[in-house]
Amino acid sequence: MKERMYKFGNIAIAIVWMVNGLFCKLLNGVPRHELIVSRILGLTYASPLTRIIGFLEVLMAVWVLSGIKPRWCTLSQIVLVGVMNILEFFMARDLLLFGSLNIVIAAIFIILLYIHGYRLSVEK
Hints:
Elements: H1 2-26, H2 32-41, H3 46-66, H4 70-91, H5 102-119
């Protein structure tokens, strides 16, 4: 049962990264993401940087599904989600889908990542 929940969690987490990376950023399905990047990293290179971030998010989905070094993968996700959302909270709060509530949603996602990666993980 624990292994089944872990596999389901892997798929769910990978979907989050894939949707945000591929649809929202690479395919520009949510143009607001580029506005957030421009606010934080500058307007000059916002478009290519948004695509690079999207590509890296797709790679994160692949890493999650690969099962390679799952605890390092979990730690990387926790740090990335935390840093991204803190920066967005302070520098682009008005552009966020849920405004100030985004930081709460990110915290819940971080807790779920921790539970998945460190409590449900079958890695010894």
